[in-house]
Design a protein that fits this description.
Layout (H helix, E strand, L loop, with lengths): L20 H15 L31 E2 L2 H6 L6 H8 L9 E3 L4 H14 L2 E5 L18 E5 L6 E5 L4 E5 L4 H8 L4 E2 L12 H7 L16 E8 L2 E4 L12 H5 L8 E8 L1 E2 L3 E9 L2 H13 L6 E5 L1 H8 L6 E9 L5 H13 L9 E4 L5 E2 L4 H10 L11 E7 L7 H20 L4 E10 L2 E11 L5 H18 L15 H7 L2 H14 L15
Parallel strand pairs: 2-4, 3-4
Antiparallel strand pairs: 1-2, 5-6, 6-10, 7-11, 8-9, 8-10, 12-14, 12-15, 13-14, 15-16, 17-19, 18-19
The protein binds flavin-adenine dinucleotide.
The site of flavin-adenine dinucleotide has 38 residues, from strand 3, helix 6 and strand 10.
Length: 535
Amino acid sequence: MTDQRTRSFWTWGFTEDEPSDSQRQEAARHISEQTGKEVLPPPIPAIADINLRKPRLSIPAGLTDWVSSDKHERVVHTYGGHILELLKALRGQFDNPPDAVAHPKTEEQLERTLAWCDAKGYTTIPYGGGTTVVDGVSVPAGSEGAVTIDTDGLNSILEIDDVSRAARMQAGIFGPDMENQLRPHGYTLRHFPQSFPWSTLGGWIATRSGGHYATNHTHIDDFVESTRMLTPAGWMESRRLPGSGAGPSPDRMVLGSEGTLGIITEAWMRLQKRPVYRATAGVVFSSWQAGYEATRAIAQAKLWPANLRLLDPVESARAAGMDGKSTLLIIGFESADVPQDAYIGHAVAIARDHGGQIENSDILISDAQGKSTGREGAVGAWRDAFIGVNAGVSNGLGMLSDTFETAVTWDKWPEFDASVRREVGTALKDVLGPGSSLSCRFTHVYVDGPAPYYTWSGPVAIGTEAQAWQHIKNAASNALVAHGGTITHHHAVGRMHAPGWQIQQPDLFQEALKAAKKRLDPNGILNPGVLFDPD
Ligand SMILES: Cc1cc2nc3c(=O)[nH]c(=O)nc-3n(C[C@H](O)[C@H](O)[C@H](O)COP(=O)(O)OP(=O)(O)OC[C@H]3O[C@@H](n4cnc5c(N)ncnc54)[C@H](O)[C@@H]3O)c2cc1C
Protein backbone atom coordinates (compact mmCIF):
# COMPACT_ATOMS: atom_id res chain seq x y z
CA MET A 1 0.00 0.00 0.00
CA THR A 2 1.37 3.34 -0.95
CA ASP A 3 -0.21 5.04 2.05
CA GLN A 4 1.29 2.66 4.62
CA ARG A 5 -2.04 1.24 5.81
CA THR A 6 -2.53 -2.51 5.45
CA ARG A 7 -5.77 -3.84 4.07
CA SER A 8 -7.68 -6.25 6.26
CA PHE A 9 -8.45 -9.62 4.68
CA TRP A 10 -11.46 -10.45 6.89
CA THR A 11 -13.28 -7.18 7.44
CA TRP A 12 -13.93 -3.89 5.60
CA GLY A 13 -11.09 -1.47 5.25
CA PHE A 14 -7.75 -1.68 6.96
CA THR A 15 -6.25 -3.64 9.83
CA GLU A 16 -6.85 -0.61 12.03
CA ASP A 17 -10.62 -1.02 11.39
CA GLU A 18 -10.71 -4.65 12.55
CA PRO A 19 -12.90 -5.31 15.59
CA SER A 20 -10.91 -6.14 18.72
CA ASP A 21 -11.04 -9.55 20.41
CA SER A 22 -13.13 -8.10 23.22
CA GLN A 23 -15.65 -6.61 20.75
CA ARG A 24 -15.96 -10.01 19.06
CA GLN A 25 -16.39 -11.74 22.42
CA GLU A 26 -19.04 -9.22 23.42
CA ALA A 27 -20.88 -9.88 20.13
CA ALA A 28 -20.64 -13.65 20.79
CA ARG A 29 -22.08 -13.18 24.30
CA HIS A 30 -24.93 -11.10 22.90
CA ILE A 31 -25.77 -13.66 20.18
CA SER A 32 -25.52 -16.56 22.67
CA GLU A 33 -28.13 -14.79 24.82
CA GLN A 34 -30.36 -14.08 21.81
CA THR A 35 -30.27 -17.61 20.39
CA GLY A 36 -29.82 -19.64 23.57
CA LYS A 37 -26.84 -21.42 21.94
CA GLU A 38 -23.39 -20.66 23.22
CA VAL A 39 -21.01 -19.46 20.49
CA LEU A 40 -17.41 -18.31 20.54
CA PRO A 41 -15.72 -16.04 18.00
CA PRO A 42 -13.95 -18.14 15.35
CA PRO A 43 -10.16 -17.75 15.45
CA ILE A 44 -8.72 -15.46 12.78
CA PRO A 45 -6.31 -17.41 10.59
CA ALA A 46 -2.73 -16.24 10.23
CA ILE A 47 -1.87 -15.47 6.62
CA ALA A 48 1.14 -17.78 6.95
CA ASP A 49 -1.24 -20.70 7.65
CA ILE A 50 -3.50 -20.10 4.66
CA ASN A 51 -3.04 -22.56 1.77
CA LEU A 52 -2.83 -20.72 -1.51
CA ARG A 53 -2.68 -22.19 -5.00
CA LYS A 54 0.71 -21.56 -6.65
CA PRO A 55 0.68 -18.57 -9.04
CA ARG A 56 -0.17 -19.75 -12.55
CA LEU A 57 1.87 -17.07 -14.28
CA SER A 58 5.29 -15.49 -14.16
CA ILE A 59 5.71 -11.77 -14.03
CA PRO A 60 7.98 -10.19 -16.68
CA ALA A 61 11.12 -8.63 -15.19
CA GLY A 62 10.12 -5.16 -16.40
CA LEU A 63 6.95 -5.15 -14.27
CA THR A 64 8.22 -6.49 -10.98
CA ASP A 65 8.60 -3.03 -9.39
CA TRP A 66 4.82 -2.86 -9.06
CA VAL A 67 3.45 -6.34 -9.82
CA SER A 68 3.99 -9.24 -7.45
CA SER A 69 2.71 -12.67 -6.45
CA ASP A 70 3.33 -11.98 -2.78
CA LYS A 71 1.09 -14.17 -0.61
CA HIS A 72 -0.25 -11.34 1.55
CA GLU A 73 -1.14 -9.30 -1.55
CA ARG A 74 -2.98 -12.23 -3.13
CA VAL A 75 -4.88 -12.98 0.08
CA VAL A 76 -6.10 -9.43 0.71
CA HIS A 77 -7.23 -9.07 -2.91
CA THR A 78 -9.12 -12.37 -3.16
CA TYR A 79 -12.47 -11.06 -1.95
CA GLY A 80 -14.69 -8.01 -1.90
CA GLY A 81 -16.78 -6.91 1.06
CA HIS A 82 -19.85 -9.16 1.00
CA ILE A 83 -20.47 -10.95 4.31
CA LEU A 84 -20.15 -14.40 2.72
CA GLU A 85 -16.80 -13.42 1.19
CA LEU A 86 -15.61 -12.15 4.56
CA LEU A 87 -16.83 -15.35 6.18
CA LYS A 88 -14.81 -17.47 3.74
CA ALA A 89 -11.79 -15.30 4.53
CA LEU A 90 -12.37 -15.72 8.25
CA ARG A 91 -12.45 -19.48 7.73
CA GLY A 92 -9.18 -19.40 5.78
CA GLN A 93 -10.85 -20.45 2.48
CA PHE A 94 -8.92 -18.91 -0.41
CA ASP A 95 -9.57 -21.37 -3.25
CA ASN A 96 -9.41 -18.93 -6.13
CA PRO A 97 -7.03 -16.04 -5.43
CA PRO A 98 -5.56 -13.76 -8.11
CA ASP A 99 -2.19 -14.96 -9.33
CA ALA A 100 -0.61 -11.53 -9.15
CA VAL A 101 -1.48 -8.06 -7.87
CA ALA A 102 -0.34 -4.82 -9.51
CA HIS A 103 -0.02 -1.41 -7.84
CA PRO A 104 0.82 0.92 -10.76
CA LYS A 105 1.89 4.37 -9.62
CA THR A 106 1.85 5.98 -13.07
CA GLU A 107 -0.32 5.70 -16.14
CA GLU A 108 2.66 4.29 -18.00
CA GLN A 109 2.96 1.46 -15.46
CA LEU A 110 -0.77 0.85 -15.81
CA GLU A 111 -0.51 0.74 -19.61
CA ARG A 112 2.32 -1.81 -19.45
CA THR A 113 0.41 -3.95 -16.95
CA LEU A 114 -2.77 -3.99 -19.01
CA ALA A 115 -0.86 -4.67 -22.25
CA TRP A 116 0.79 -7.69 -20.57
CA CYS A 117 -2.55 -9.03 -19.30
CA ASP A 118 -4.17 -8.51 -22.71
CA ALA A 119 -1.36 -10.20 -24.63
CA LYS A 120 -1.51 -13.22 -22.30
CA GLY A 121 -5.31 -13.30 -21.99
CA TYR A 122 -5.19 -13.03 -18.18
CA THR A 123 -8.41 -12.15 -16.40
CA THR A 124 -7.91 -8.57 -15.24
CA ILE A 125 -9.71 -7.19 -12.22
CA PRO A 126 -9.73 -3.45 -11.49
CA TYR A 127 -9.69 -2.94 -7.71
CA GLY A 128 -10.43 0.21 -5.72
CA GLY A 129 -11.30 -0.25 -2.05
CA GLY A 130 -12.61 -3.80 -2.46
CA THR A 131 -15.88 -2.88 -0.71
CA THR A 132 -18.05 -4.38 -3.46
CA VAL A 133 -20.92 -6.34 -1.93
CA VAL A 134 -22.03 -7.84 -5.25
CA ASP A 135 -19.07 -10.07 -6.17
CA GLY A 136 -17.28 -7.45 -8.28
CA VAL A 137 -13.59 -8.11 -7.63
CA SER A 138 -13.19 -11.88 -7.25
CA VAL A 139 -11.53 -14.16 -9.78
CA PRO A 140 -14.23 -15.90 -11.85
CA ALA A 141 -14.34 -19.69 -12.09
CA GLY A 142 -12.63 -20.92 -15.23
CA SER A 143 -10.00 -18.20 -15.37
CA GLU A 144 -6.58 -19.63 -16.17
CA GLY A 145 -4.56 -16.74 -14.83
CA ALA A 146 -5.76 -13.59 -13.07
CA VAL A 147 -4.20 -10.23 -12.26
CA THR A 148 -5.80 -7.73 -9.90
CA ILE A 149 -4.93 -4.12 -10.64
CA ASP A 150 -5.16 -2.14 -7.42
CA THR A 151 -5.45 1.60 -8.12
CA ASP A 152 -4.14 2.74 -4.74
CA GLY A 153 -0.95 4.15 -6.28
CA LEU A 154 -3.04 6.61 -8.32
CA ASN A 155 -4.38 8.57 -5.41
CA SER A 156 -3.80 12.32 -5.76
CA ILE A 157 -5.80 15.42 -6.46
CA LEU A 158 -3.93 16.76 -9.48
CA GLU A 159 -5.59 20.12 -10.10
CA ILE A 160 -8.28 22.38 -8.65
CA ASP A 161 -10.18 24.80 -10.88
CA ASP A 162 -11.49 27.43 -8.45
CA VAL A 163 -13.32 29.32 -11.16
CA SER A 164 -15.46 26.41 -12.32
CA ARG A 165 -15.24 24.76 -8.85
CA ALA A 166 -14.03 21.37 -9.99
CA ALA A 167 -11.02 19.16 -9.38
CA ARG A 168 -9.05 16.64 -11.40
CA MET A 169 -8.56 13.62 -9.21
CA GLN A 170 -6.99 10.23 -9.61
CA ALA A 171 -9.31 7.26 -9.32
CA GLY A 172 -7.57 5.39 -6.52
CA ILE A 173 -8.08 8.11 -3.92
CA PHE A 174 -10.00 6.96 -0.82
CA GLY A 175 -12.89 9.04 0.49
CA PRO A 176 -11.23 10.48 3.62
CA ASP A 177 -7.97 11.28 1.75
CA MET A 178 -9.94 13.17 -0.87
CA GLU A 179 -11.91 15.18 1.70
CA ASN A 180 -8.71 15.91 3.68
CA GLN A 181 -7.09 17.33 0.55
CA LEU A 182 -10.18 19.37 -0.40
CA ARG A 183 -10.85 20.76 3.10
CA PRO A 184 -8.04 23.38 3.11
CA HIS A 185 -9.58 24.82 -0.08
CA GLY A 186 -13.02 25.05 1.57
CA TYR A 187 -14.46 22.40 -0.75
CA THR A 188 -16.08 19.00 -0.47
CA LEU A 189 -17.20 16.44 -3.03
CA ARG A 190 -20.13 15.87 -0.66
CA HIS A 191 -20.43 12.24 -1.66
CA PHE A 192 -20.62 9.97 1.36
CA PRO A 193 -21.57 6.35 0.74
CA GLN A 194 -21.68 4.36 3.95
CA SER A 195 -18.44 2.68 2.79
CA PHE A 196 -16.81 6.12 2.40
CA PRO A 197 -13.73 5.40 4.62
CA TRP A 198 -12.72 2.33 2.62
CA SER A 199 -13.82 2.99 -0.96
CA THR A 200 -12.36 5.00 -3.83
CA LEU A 201 -13.41 7.53 -6.44
CA GLY A 202 -12.79 4.99 -9.24
CA GLY A 203 -14.93 2.40 -7.45
CA TRP A 204 -17.71 4.96 -6.96
CA ILE A 205 -17.73 5.93 -10.65
CA ALA A 206 -17.47 2.31 -11.81
CA THR A 207 -20.47 1.31 -9.65
CA ARG A 208 -22.57 4.52 -9.80
CA SER A 209 -22.51 4.74 -6.03
CA GLY A 210 -25.12 6.55 -3.98
CA GLY A 211 -24.12 8.94 -1.22
CA HIS A 212 -26.05 9.23 2.03
CA TYR A 213 -27.92 12.39 1.07
CA ALA A 214 -31.48 11.47 0.31
CA THR A 215 -32.52 13.84 -2.46
CA ASN A 216 -31.07 15.98 -5.20
CA HIS A 217 -27.30 15.67 -5.80
CA THR A 218 -26.24 12.49 -4.08
CA HIS A 219 -25.17 10.01 -6.76
CA ILE A 220 -21.62 10.07 -8.03
CA ASP A 221 -23.13 10.58 -11.52
CA ASP A 222 -24.19 14.08 -10.45
CA PHE A 223 -20.62 15.15 -9.75
CA VAL A 224 -18.75 13.71 -12.74
CA GLU A 225 -17.65 16.39 -15.21
CA SER A 226 -15.37 14.17 -17.32
CA THR A 227 -13.60 10.80 -17.10
CA ARG A 228 -10.37 9.21 -18.29
CA MET A 229 -10.22 5.46 -18.73
CA LEU A 230 -7.62 3.05 -20.07
CA THR A 231 -9.08 0.20 -22.09
CA PRO A 232 -7.20 -2.65 -23.79
CA ALA A 233 -7.95 -0.77 -27.04
CA GLY A 234 -6.47 2.52 -25.79
CA TRP A 235 -7.38 5.65 -23.83
CA MET A 236 -10.87 7.10 -23.72
CA GLU A 237 -11.14 10.58 -22.24
CA SER A 238 -14.17 12.83 -22.32
CA ARG A 239 -14.23 16.62 -22.62
CA ARG A 240 -14.86 18.72 -19.52
CA LEU A 241 -18.28 20.29 -19.92
CA PRO A 242 -20.84 21.62 -17.44
CA GLY A 243 -23.55 19.99 -19.51
CA SER A 244 -24.03 18.91 -23.08
CA GLY A 245 -26.78 17.72 -25.36
CA ALA A 246 -24.32 16.46 -27.97
CA GLY A 247 -25.56 12.93 -28.43
CA PRO A 248 -24.98 10.00 -26.08
CA SER A 249 -22.47 10.91 -23.38
CA PRO A 250 -19.18 9.00 -23.11
CA ASP A 251 -19.27 9.45 -19.32
CA ARG A 252 -22.60 7.63 -19.21
CA MET A 253 -20.81 4.61 -20.66
CA VAL A 254 -18.04 4.76 -18.08
CA LEU A 255 -20.42 5.28 -15.13
CA GLY A 256 -21.59 1.87 -14.00
CA SER A 257 -19.19 -0.04 -16.27
CA GLU A 258 -17.96 -1.96 -13.18
CA GLY A 259 -14.48 -2.63 -14.49
CA THR A 260 -15.75 -4.41 -17.62
CA LEU A 261 -14.73 -1.78 -20.18
CA GLY A 262 -11.53 -0.29 -18.80
CA ILE A 263 -9.73 1.09 -15.79
CA ILE A 264 -10.78 4.58 -14.80
CA THR A 265 -7.66 6.55 -13.88
CA GLU A 266 -8.93 10.11 -13.45
CA ALA A 267 -12.02 12.23 -13.38
CA TRP A 268 -12.82 15.91 -13.18
CA MET A 269 -15.32 16.17 -10.35
CA ARG A 270 -17.70 19.03 -9.50
CA LEU A 271 -17.07 20.38 -6.00
CA GLN A 272 -19.23 22.16 -3.48
CA LYS A 273 -18.58 24.62 -0.71
CA ARG A 274 -18.68 23.04 2.72
CA PRO A 275 -22.13 23.46 4.30
CA VAL A 276 -22.38 25.56 7.47
CA TYR A 277 -26.14 26.08 7.92
CA ARG A 278 -28.02 22.99 9.10
CA ALA A 279 -31.47 21.99 10.30
CA THR A 280 -32.65 18.57 11.47
CA ALA A 281 -35.90 17.08 12.75
CA GLY A 282 -37.10 13.59 13.64
CA VAL A 283 -40.86 13.30 13.03
CA VAL A 284 -42.79 10.35 14.50
CA PHE A 285 -45.75 8.67 12.79
CA SER A 286 -48.12 6.09 14.19
CA SER A 287 -48.04 4.04 10.97
CA TRP A 288 -45.63 3.14 8.19
CA GLN A 289 -48.18 4.29 5.61
CA ALA A 290 -48.59 7.75 7.17
CA GLY A 291 -44.79 8.01 7.18
CA TYR A 292 -44.34 7.16 3.52
CA GLU A 293 -47.24 9.38 2.43
CA ALA A 294 -45.58 12.30 4.23
CA THR A 295 -42.23 11.44 2.65
CA ARG A 296 -43.77 11.46 -0.81
CA ALA A 297 -45.43 14.82 -0.17
CA ILE A 298 -42.15 16.39 1.00
CA ALA A 299 -40.25 14.97 -1.99
CA GLN A 300 -42.91 16.23 -4.36
CA ALA A 301 -42.81 19.69 -2.78
CA LYS A 302 -39.26 19.81 -4.20
CA LEU A 303 -37.69 21.20 -1.06
CA TRP A 304 -34.66 18.94 -1.68
CA PRO A 305 -33.76 18.00 1.88
CA ALA A 306 -30.27 16.55 2.31
CA ASN A 307 -31.80 13.87 4.47
CA LEU A 308 -35.25 12.37 4.15
CA ARG A 309 -34.77 8.99 5.72
CA LEU A 310 -37.83 7.01 6.71
CA LEU A 311 -37.36 4.16 9.20
CA ASP A 312 -40.08 1.54 9.66
CA PRO A 313 -41.01 0.52 13.23
CA VAL A 314 -38.41 -2.29 13.37
CA GLU A 315 -35.65 0.01 12.13
CA SER A 316 -36.65 2.95 14.32
CA ALA A 317 -36.61 0.69 17.39
CA ARG A 318 -33.24 -0.80 16.50
CA ALA A 319 -31.48 2.32 15.24
CA ALA A 320 -33.11 5.08 17.27
CA GLY A 321 -34.37 3.31 20.43
CA MET A 322 -38.07 3.87 19.67
CA ASP A 323 -41.06 1.82 20.82
CA GLY A 324 -41.27 -0.71 17.95
CA LYS A 325 -44.64 0.64 16.78
CA SER A 326 -43.73 4.07 15.45
CA THR A 327 -42.24 5.12 12.14
CA LEU A 328 -39.52 7.77 12.23
CA LEU A 329 -38.85 10.29 9.46
CA ILE A 330 -35.51 12.03 9.74
CA ILE A 331 -35.47 15.30 7.83
CA GLY A 332 -32.26 17.27 7.34
CA PHE A 333 -31.33 20.37 5.39
CA GLU A 334 -27.93 21.96 4.86
CA SER A 335 -26.38 24.76 2.85
CA ALA A 336 -23.12 26.66 2.52
CA ASP A 337 -24.95 29.92 1.89
CA VAL A 338 -28.54 30.04 3.11
CA PRO A 339 -30.10 29.63 6.60
CA GLN A 340 -32.27 26.50 6.61
CA ASP A 341 -35.02 27.46 9.11
CA ALA A 342 -37.63 28.16 6.48
CA TYR A 343 -36.99 24.92 4.59
CA ILE A 344 -37.23 22.70 7.66
CA GLY A 345 -40.33 24.64 8.69
CA HIS A 346 -42.03 23.80 5.38
CA ALA A 347 -41.03 20.14 5.54
CA VAL A 348 -42.18 19.74 9.15
CA ALA A 349 -45.50 21.42 8.32
CA ILE A 350 -46.09 18.90 5.51
CA ALA A 351 -45.16 16.03 7.86
CA ARG A 352 -47.61 17.34 10.50
CA ASP A 353 -50.34 17.56 7.87
CA HIS A 354 -49.85 13.81 7.42
CA GLY A 355 -50.13 13.05 11.12
CA GLY A 356 -46.46 13.44 12.06
CA GLN A 357 -45.67 14.36 15.66
CA ILE A 358 -42.81 16.62 16.67
CA GLU A 359 -42.32 19.32 19.31
CA ASN A 360 -40.88 22.58 18.00
CA SER A 361 -38.09 22.21 20.56
CA ASP A 362 -37.03 18.98 18.78
CA ILE A 363 -36.11 20.85 15.60
CA LEU A 364 -32.37 21.50 15.68
CA ILE A 365 -31.22 24.54 13.68
CA SER A 366 -27.56 25.62 13.40
CA ASP A 367 -26.22 28.83 11.90
CA ALA A 368 -22.94 29.62 10.16
CA GLN A 369 -21.21 30.33 13.49
CA GLY A 370 -22.23 26.86 14.75
CA LYS A 371 -24.79 28.31 17.21
CA SER A 372 -27.83 26.03 17.56
CA THR A 373 -31.38 26.13 18.80
CA GLY A 374 -33.45 23.05 19.65
CA ARG A 375 -32.26 19.51 20.26
CA GLU A 376 -31.64 16.46 18.18
CA GLY A 377 -33.90 13.86 19.82
CA ALA A 378 -34.02 10.46 18.08
CA VAL A 379 -31.86 11.66 15.19
CA GLY A 380 -28.64 11.57 17.24
CA ALA A 381 -29.17 7.94 18.27
CA TRP A 382 -29.88 7.00 14.65
CA ARG A 383 -26.69 8.73 13.42
CA ASP A 384 -24.49 6.89 15.94
CA ALA A 385 -25.94 3.54 14.85
CA PHE A 386 -25.52 4.41 11.16
CA ILE A 387 -21.90 5.48 11.38
CA GLY A 388 -20.73 2.75 13.74
CA VAL A 389 -21.01 -0.14 11.24
CA ASN A 390 -18.24 -2.72 11.53
CA ALA A 391 -18.12 -5.96 9.57
CA GLY A 392 -16.57 -8.99 11.07
CA VAL A 393 -17.67 -8.36 14.61
CA SER A 394 -20.45 -10.93 14.48
CA ASN A 395 -19.58 -12.86 11.34
CA GLY A 396 -19.53 -16.65 11.82
CA LEU A 397 -21.37 -16.54 15.15
CA GLY A 398 -24.63 -18.16 14.06
CA MET A 399 -26.50 -14.97 13.20
CA LEU A 400 -26.88 -14.18 9.51
CA SER A 401 -27.88 -10.78 8.20
CA ASP A 402 -27.72 -8.86 4.97
CA THR A 403 -29.43 -6.06 3.10
CA PHE A 404 -30.97 -5.58 -0.34
CA GLU A 405 -31.97 -2.29 -1.91
CA THR A 406 -34.00 -1.09 -4.83
CA ALA A 407 -36.10 1.78 -6.18
CA VAL A 408 -39.67 1.76 -7.45
CA THR A 409 -42.19 4.34 -8.56
CA TRP A 410 -44.74 5.61 -5.99
CA ASP A 411 -47.70 4.18 -7.90
CA LYS A 412 -46.34 0.65 -7.37
CA TRP A 413 -44.82 1.21 -3.92
CA PRO A 414 -47.50 0.03 -1.43
CA GLU A 415 -48.19 -3.22 -3.31
CA PHE A 416 -44.47 -3.68 -4.00
CA ASP A 417 -43.55 -3.34 -0.32
CA ALA A 418 -46.28 -5.74 0.77
CA SER A 419 -45.19 -8.34 -1.80
CA VAL A 420 -41.49 -8.06 -0.96
CA ARG A 421 -42.18 -8.41 2.76
CA ARG A 422 -44.46 -11.41 2.15
CA GLU A 423 -42.12 -13.27 -0.22
CA VAL A 424 -38.88 -12.54 1.59
CA GLY A 425 -40.59 -13.10 4.95
CA THR A 426 -41.56 -16.62 3.81
CA ALA A 427 -37.99 -17.36 2.70
CA LEU A 428 -36.65 -16.09 6.02
CA LYS A 429 -39.01 -18.33 7.97
CA ASP A 430 -38.05 -21.31 5.73
CA VAL A 431 -34.37 -21.11 6.54
CA LEU A 432 -33.88 -18.90 9.61
CA GLY A 433 -37.04 -19.69 11.51
CA PRO A 434 -39.36 -17.50 13.58
CA GLY A 435 -36.48 -15.56 15.18
CA SER A 436 -35.78 -13.78 11.91
CA SER A 437 -36.58 -10.15 11.16
CA LEU A 438 -37.09 -7.99 8.08
CA SER A 439 -37.13 -4.20 8.14
CA CYS A 440 -37.07 -1.30 5.73
CA ARG A 441 -35.88 2.26 5.48
CA PHE A 442 -35.73 4.72 2.61
CA THR A 443 -32.16 5.72 1.81
CA HIS A 444 -33.04 7.98 -1.10
CA VAL A 445 -36.30 9.57 -2.14
CA TYR A 446 -37.22 10.85 -5.59
CA VAL A 447 -40.13 12.91 -6.77
CA ASP A 448 -41.47 9.81 -8.53
CA GLY A 449 -40.53 7.08 -6.07
CA PRO A 450 -38.55 5.89 -3.05
CA ALA A 451 -35.36 3.81 -2.84
CA PRO A 452 -36.22 1.30 -0.09
CA TYR A 453 -33.39 -0.54 1.68
CA TYR A 454 -34.36 -3.79 3.38
CA THR A 455 -32.36 -5.44 6.16
CA TRP A 456 -32.92 -9.02 7.28
CA SER A 457 -31.36 -11.16 9.95
CA GLY A 458 -31.89 -14.34 11.92
CA PRO A 459 -30.21 -17.28 13.59
CA VAL A 460 -28.49 -19.76 11.28
CA ALA A 461 -26.75 -23.10 11.85
CA ILE A 462 -23.03 -22.44 11.65
CA GLY A 463 -21.69 -23.89 8.39
CA THR A 464 -24.99 -23.47 6.48
CA GLU A 465 -24.75 -19.71 5.98
CA ALA A 466 -24.14 -19.81 2.22
CA GLN A 467 -27.14 -22.06 1.41
CA ALA A 468 -29.44 -20.09 3.72
CA TRP A 469 -28.27 -16.79 2.27
CA GLN A 470 -28.80 -18.00 -1.33
CA HIS A 471 -32.37 -19.08 -0.59
CA ILE A 472 -33.21 -15.65 0.86
CA LYS A 473 -31.32 -13.78 -1.85
CA ASN A 474 -33.19 -15.62 -4.60
CA ALA A 475 -36.52 -14.71 -3.01
CA ALA A 476 -35.47 -11.06 -2.63
CA SER A 477 -34.07 -10.67 -6.16
CA ASN A 478 -37.09 -12.38 -7.73
CA ALA A 479 -39.47 -10.18 -5.75
CA LEU A 480 -37.68 -6.92 -6.64
CA VAL A 481 -37.70 -7.58 -10.35
CA ALA A 482 -41.12 -9.28 -10.54
CA HIS A 483 -42.89 -6.41 -8.77
CA GLY A 484 -41.42 -3.61 -10.84
CA GLY A 485 -38.33 -2.47 -8.92
CA THR A 486 -34.70 -2.42 -9.93
CA ILE A 487 -32.36 -5.25 -8.92
CA THR A 488 -30.15 -2.61 -7.29
CA HIS A 489 -30.40 1.09 -6.59
CA HIS A 490 -26.77 1.70 -5.58
CA HIS A 491 -25.03 -1.51 -4.53
CA ALA A 492 -24.20 -2.24 -8.20
CA VAL A 493 -24.60 -5.37 -10.32
CA GLY A 494 -21.39 -7.38 -10.10
CA ARG A 495 -21.86 -11.09 -10.70
CA MET A 496 -24.42 -11.35 -7.90
CA HIS A 497 -27.10 -9.21 -9.54
CA ALA A 498 -26.24 -9.98 -13.16
CA PRO A 499 -29.26 -12.30 -13.73
CA GLY A 500 -31.71 -9.68 -12.38
CA TRP A 501 -30.01 -6.90 -14.34
CA GLN A 502 -30.31 -8.95 -17.51
CA ILE A 503 -34.06 -9.40 -16.97
CA GLN A 504 -34.71 -5.70 -16.45
CA GLN A 505 -32.60 -4.38 -19.36
CA PRO A 506 -33.84 -4.45 -22.96
CA ASP A 507 -32.18 -7.27 -24.95
CA LEU A 508 -31.00 -4.92 -27.68
CA PHE A 509 -29.34 -2.64 -25.15
CA GLN A 510 -27.40 -5.58 -23.73
CA GLU A 511 -26.33 -6.62 -27.21
CA ALA A 512 -25.19 -3.07 -27.95
CA LEU A 513 -23.22 -2.95 -24.70
CA LYS A 514 -21.55 -6.27 -25.47
CA ALA A 515 -20.62 -4.94 -28.91
CA ALA A 516 -19.07 -1.88 -27.22
CA LYS A 517 -17.15 -4.17 -24.88
CA LYS A 518 -15.90 -6.17 -27.86
CA ARG A 519 -14.47 -2.94 -29.31
CA LEU A 520 -12.82 -1.76 -26.06
CA ASP A 521 -11.83 -5.16 -24.64
CA PRO A 522 -11.63 -7.50 -27.66
CA ASN A 523 -10.15 -10.41 -25.68
CA GLY A 524 -12.74 -10.11 -22.93
CA ILE A 525 -10.13 -9.95 -20.14
CA LEU A 526 -11.79 -7.31 -17.97
CA ASN A 527 -14.02 -8.63 -15.17
CA PRO A 528 -15.74 -11.40 -17.17
CA GLY A 529 -19.14 -12.29 -15.72
CA VAL A 530 -19.62 -8.91 -14.05
CA LEU A 531 -22.78 -7.34 -15.60
CA PHE A 532 -22.79 -10.05 -18.29
CA ASP A 533 -20.78 -12.84 -19.78
CA PRO A 534 -18.91 -11.27 -22.72
CA ASP A 535 -19.62 -14.35 -24.87
C1 LIG B 1 -20.24 -1.33 4.65
C2 LIG B 1 -20.56 -1.00 3.24
C3 LIG B 1 -21.39 0.05 2.99
C4 LIG B 1 -21.70 0.40 1.67
N1 LIG B 1 -22.47 1.50 1.46
C5 LIG B 1 -22.69 1.91 0.20
C6 LIG B 1 -23.42 3.11 -0.03
O1 LIG B 1 -23.84 3.81 0.89
N2 LIG B 1 -23.63 3.48 -1.32
C7 LIG B 1 -23.14 2.74 -2.36
O2 LIG B 1 -23.35 3.13 -3.50
N3 LIG B 1 -22.47 1.59 -2.16
C8 LIG B 1 -22.20 1.17 -0.92
N4 LIG B 1 -21.48 0.03 -0.72
C9 LIG B 1 -20.95 -0.72 -1.87
C10 LIG B 1 -19.54 -0.25 -2.31
O3 LIG B 1 -18.89 0.43 -1.28
C11 LIG B 1 -19.63 0.64 -3.53
O4 LIG B 1 -20.01 -0.14 -4.64
C12 LIG B 1 -18.34 1.39 -3.86
O5 LIG B 1 -18.60 2.31 -4.89
C13 LIG B 1 -17.19 0.49 -4.26
O6 LIG B 1 -16.00 1.26 -4.27
P1 LIG B 1 -14.58 0.55 -4.11
O7 LIG B 1 -13.54 1.60 -4.30
O8 LIG B 1 -14.52 -0.20 -2.84
O9 LIG B 1 -14.58 -0.41 -5.36
P2 LIG B 1 -14.27 -1.95 -5.45
O10 LIG B 1 -15.10 -2.70 -4.50
O11 LIG B 1 -12.82 -2.17 -5.43
O12 LIG B 1 -14.78 -2.24 -6.94
C14 LIG B 1 -16.14 -2.19 -7.27
C15 LIG B 1 -16.30 -2.50 -8.77
O13 LIG B 1 -15.76 -1.44 -9.52
C16 LIG B 1 -14.63 -1.88 -10.29
N5 LIG B 1 -13.61 -0.85 -10.17
C17 LIG B 1 -13.03 -0.38 -9.02
N6 LIG B 1 -12.17 0.62 -9.32
C18 LIG B 1 -12.23 0.79 -10.66
C19 LIG B 1 -11.56 1.67 -11.56
N7 LIG B 1 -10.67 2.59 -11.17
N8 LIG B 1 -11.85 1.57 -12.89
C20 LIG B 1 -12.74 0.66 -13.34
N9 LIG B 1 -13.39 -0.21 -12.52
C21 LIG B 1 -13.14 -0.13 -11.20
C22 LIG B 1 -14.23 -3.23 -9.72
O14 LIG B 1 -13.66 -4.09 -10.69
C23 LIG B 1 -15.55 -3.75 -9.18
O15 LIG B 1 -16.29 -4.41 -10.18
C24 LIG B 1 -21.17 -0.36 0.59
C25 LIG B 1 -20.33 -1.45 0.86
C26 LIG B 1 -20.02 -1.77 2.16
C27 LIG B 1 -19.10 -2.91 2.41
